Amino acid sequence: MCNLKAIIIASAAALCSVGAVAQEDSSIEGGFLAESQELGYKPYPYNFIQVQGGFGTTFTDVSCWKLLSPTFSIGIGRMFSPIIGARVHVNGWKAKGGFDEFRYTGDQPVNNPSVLKYKHSYINSNVDLMVNIFNVFSQKVHRPFDLYLIGGLGLNYTWHNNGFENIVSQYQVGSNIVNAWGNKQNLRHNVLSHNLRLGLLADYNIAKHWSVGAEIDFNSLDDRFNSKYKDADDWMMTGQLSITYKFGFKDAPKPAPKPVVAPPVVAKPVEPAPVAAPKPVEAPAPKPVVVDEPLKETIFYALRESDVNRESIVNKVAEWCKKYPNKKITIDGYADKGTGNPKLNVGYAQKRADKIAALLKEKGVPASQMTVKSYGDSVQPFSENDKNRCVIIEGK
Q: Rounded distance, CA 320 to CA 262, Å?
C-alpha cells in the first residue's frame, strides 16, 4: 500500500517553509534589473500554456499500484512576479476502483483475477496558486531550473461507473458495499464534488519560451468518488510530465547612458604687443589678501548603509564652518540607481544626509548654517554606479 500519510506531511512541510523566509524587495529588484539587462527581456511577468500527460491512481483498500491509469491535463496561467503565479488547470481521463476480497456467485472463470477492477470517467477543474520556492530564498530570479509549490481549489465531476454495477451484480463483494452514487434508491450516473490540491512542479527552462517539467499532485475528493463509502475523503495522486510555452515578456529597461565629458578647450596663447618698459616706481607695501578656501567633501557608503562616521571629514567641515560663520554648507544625500527602487532610495539618501548633519551639530555647527536634502537615485553625480551611494558636502 502506498505511504500516503508520509507524502502529505512532507508536502505540507514544504508549504510552511515558504512563509518562514522574508527578503527585502530592494535586493530582489536590484538583481532583477541586472538580469533583465543581461537577458535582453524581463523574465517576469509572463503568461503560459501548459500541456501534461502521465498516470494517476486512487488510495483505497486496494493497492494504489494496481489502480494506475493514464491521465492528461491542460493549463493556462500567468506568473505575476518572480515568486507568485496562478493558473486555471483541467485534468482528467479514467480512474479505477477495485475489490480485493470477493466471492463468485456463478461459474468460476478459468482465469481467477486477484483484484476485480472497474473504471469511471472524471475531470478535475482547479484554480491553482503557484509559488516559486527558489525565488523566495534567492536574489537570482532567472535560472535553468525552478521548483513550484502548487495549491488549488476547484470542482471534480465523475460519471459512467457501469463497471461497478456489473461487478456487484455478478460477485459477492461484501454485505456493506453499495453504490455510493445512489440517491434515494435511484442510481445517479454522475457525481459533482469539491477538489482540493497540493503538489510540486519541477520545471527546466530549455529556451526563452519553452520549458519541460514533471508535476506530482495530491487531490482530496468527495468520499463517493470511487463509488464506495469509507467515511473520509477519497485521495487521488497524479504524476505527469509537462511542456510549457511562455509568452508575453516585456523588453528590458535600457541602462542609463554614461555622461559624456567634453575634453577641455585649450586656448592658443596670444603674444602680447610690445610695450615700453615703465619707469620704476616704488610700490607701496601690499595689503594682506584673505582668500576663501573652497569646501567640497564626499562620503561614500556600502549597500543600504547610512550609519557611517567619517571623523576626519566631519572635523574638517566643522572647522571650515567656524572659520566662515557667514557662509553656508549644503549636505546632499544620493543613492545608486542600480539597486533598490526610487521609494526606498530616497529614504536611504535622506538617512545618510541627516546623519552627517547630526554629527556636525555635535561639533558646534548651527542648523541655520546647513541645508540638508535627499536626491535619492534621481540624480547620479558619478558614472560608476556604486559611487552614487554617497553624501556630498559643499561650502558656498
A: 32
Count structural domains, the chain. 2
- Kindly state whether residues 52 and 157 are assigned to the same domain: yes
SS3 content of the chain, % helix, strand, coil (to 5): 20, 40, 40
Q: Which residues of the chain have pLDDT under 70?
A: 1-32, 101-113, 174-176, 183-188, 255-256, 258, 267, 281, 283, 285-291, 306-309
Residue 263 located in a structural domain: no
Same domain, yes or no: 238 and 299? no
Cell 530549455 maps to which residue? 206
Q: Which residues share a beta bridge with 70?
A: 55
Same domain, 197 and 323: no
Q: What angle, 0 to 180 degrees and rounded to 10, lies between the N-to-C axes of helices 342-362 and 311-323?
A: 60
With the CA atoms of 96, 102, 108 and 110 taken in that order, what torsion angle do they form, in degrees rounded to the nearest 10?
Answer: 50
> What is the pTM (predicted TM-score) of this model?
0.56
Residue type, 337: K
The answer to whether the CB of 305 falls within 8 A of the CB of 347 is no
In a domain, 100, yes or no: yes
Domain termination site, one of 251, 283, 315? 251
* Among 391, 380, 343, CA closest to 255: 380
Question: Cα(93)–Cα(99) distance, rounded to whole angstroms?
Answer: 21
In a domain, 269, yes or no: no
Cell digits for 55?
Answer: 498516470
Answer for the pair 247, 44: CB distance below 8 angstroms, yes or no.
no
**What are phi and psi for residue 117, nearest 5 degrees?**
-120, 150
307/238 same-domain check: no
CA distance 271 to 274: 9
Distance CA 308, CA 391 (A): 10
Residue 260 counted as domain residue: no
Q: Which domain holds residue 376?
A: 295-395
